[in-house]
Every structure is written in structure tokens, then in C-alpha cells.
Amino acid sequence: MTRTIFIGAPIDSGQRRPGCLMGPAAYRVAGLAQVLRDLGHAVEDWGDVALTDLPEAQCANPAVDQLPETLGWTMALTERVDDALAAGGLPIVLGGDHSLALGSVAGAALNARRLGRPLFLLWLDAHSDFHTPMTTTSGNLHGTPVAYIAGRDGFDAFPPFPAPIPADRICLFGIRSVDPAEHAALLQHDIAINDMRVLDEQGIVAPLRSFLERVRAMGGLLHVSLDVDFLDPSIAPAVGTTVPGGTTFREAHLVMELLHESGLVTSLDLVELNPFLDERGRTAKLMVDLVASLMGKKVFDRPTRSFA
Q1: Cis peptide bond prior to 154, omega within 30° of 0
Q2: Annotated catalytic sites, by residue?
Q3: What is the pLDDT of residues 231-280, one digit of tens each?
Q4: Measured by CB atoms within 10 angstroms of the end CB, which terminus of the chain is less buried, N or C?
């Protein structure tokens, strides 16, 4: 039995399309807690993180949007995730846009440093999110977490990342949309980039197992950040950053099943769900189903489902 801890992150500040702040409520309404209890896990819901006084912050890049709010969420989530891990739980951060990973992974890094163990990051996303506040042209800070986590320069307004994750401990999986500036920066780092071309050629299993074996060999902790747009928009429409050619229903479940079998996952983000864009809760239910696979639900346990 795993002690799971829900941390709601109703964050919209990392991008400009409203709706992600409704994500935590959508996961609760879709029955995530009961699904995990039915699998034998303990579930604690610590409620939604709330902003207090916003820090003063400026950025030399005038395009950057909602920096004080994003900083506030980052600091609050860092503390909350660290608290959940220190309490012996597996935090599941219910988002919220992907800027929440600025804080959730920082909290996981604090815990890893305290335990003296290496932290690894599996980034399940259509995007590399490797911009810095100084390189982003959109100004949307949900495109910056991996750069922050990897220790890139340009985050002067942010607290120093507790222990930047070396590039060889970061795996980008399912990538299919990378800006030129991100591409140039990624070429200077040894991050494992398993884009959809790699997955088409090698399949889902081999690249993921290779990464998981590295985590196990080093006695590492594993943070998984799951973006809705990792999935193909034909099965998961409730995201503001749709990119065609994503993973299928079966491929996504296979990833989750392999993660469960590894026993390595110690913290999890669920990000970019925008219920305003969903079709009768279809995407929220799929994301809940994927978490169930990660937590041990078997394919033969799945009833036939109709959305009619």
C-alpha cells in the first residue's frame, strides 16, 4: 500500500489561456481518490495550495508574463511537496499548468538532497520546456521548468534550484514541439530526448526501460511529470497546447504500467488539464485511468466503457 498525498495546484499563471486552475477540482470530480483507494492505497487530500503575498520580481525580458504569481506558486509548492515527501508520502500534484513543476520538482530535489540520493526526472510532454525567462518569446513560464531544473542561467528572479538535476538524469519522452532556441540549448546538454521519431522507430519500451534501469542502478528517486499533451489530442482534447501525433491510449498505458512495475516513482505531476476545453470529462477520466495504471491497475481489470 502506498500513502498518496494530493496537492492541488490551481495554477493559470504559466500561460495565458484560462481554465487550468479548474484542473484540481476536475481530478477530484473524476474520482481519482476512490480509484486509488480501490487499488488498496491510502489517500490523503491536503487541499489546494494558496498564494499569500506575492513577491516583488522583475525580468529584463519584457515578454515574461505573470512572474510574481509564478514565483509565489513555485515557493509554495516547493515547500508543500517537500513536506509530503518528508511525511513518507507519494505526492500527486493536481494541476494546473506546467509551471507548477518549477516548484514540485524543487520540492522533490530538497527531499533527495536530504536523503543523499540522486533525483531523476521523466518529462512526459509534447514540449521540451527548456526555455529560460530570458529566451522565451511567448513569455509563458510553463515553457521553462526543465531549464530551471537543469540549472540553466536566466532564473535570477527565482530561488536557486536546490540541487540542479544533471542532464543525464533527465529524460524527455514523447517530445514533438521544440522551439529553435530550445533546440540549440538542448544540443549543449546531455539530456535524453526520446521524441516521437525515436518512439516510432524503437517503440515505447526500450528507451523507457533504459532510463529506468539507470535510475535503479544509482538508487535514485524518480519524479514523473505528466502533461495532458503527451497524449494525442484525438483522445485528450482538454489542453491548450495540442500537438498532433502524440501517444495513443495503449502507448500511454504501457508507459504507466512500466513505471508501476519499476517501483521507482516517488512523486508525480498531472499538468495542463483545462476542463473548459474537455468533452464531458473525457480527458480528466483518461488521466485518472493513467494514474490508476501507474498505481497498479491491470489491463484485464478494465471494463468496457461508453462515452455515449
Answers
A1: no
A2: 98, 125, 127, 129, 142, 227, 229, 272
A3: 999 999 999 988 999 999 999 999 999 999 999 999 999 999 999 999 99
A4: C
Residue 78 placed within a domain: yes
Domain carrying residue 206: 3-299
Q: How far apart are CA 251 and CA 173, in angstroms?
A: 12
249 is a domain residue: yes
Helical packing angle, 205-217 and 249-262, nearest 10°: 20
**In a domain? residue 305:** no
Q: Flag whether 243 is in a domain.
A: yes
Which cell numbers hold the place of 114? 536530504
Contact present, 27 and 284 (Cβ < 8 Å): yes
Nearest to 215, CA basis, from 91, 112, 85, 64: 112
Q: pLDDT (tens digit, 9 = 90+) per residue, 181-231?
A: 999 999 999 898 999 999 999 999 999 999 999 999 999 999 999 999 999
CATH code, 275: 3.40.800.10
**Exposed, middle or buried, 219 (CB in 10 Å: 0-12/13-18/19+)?**
exposed
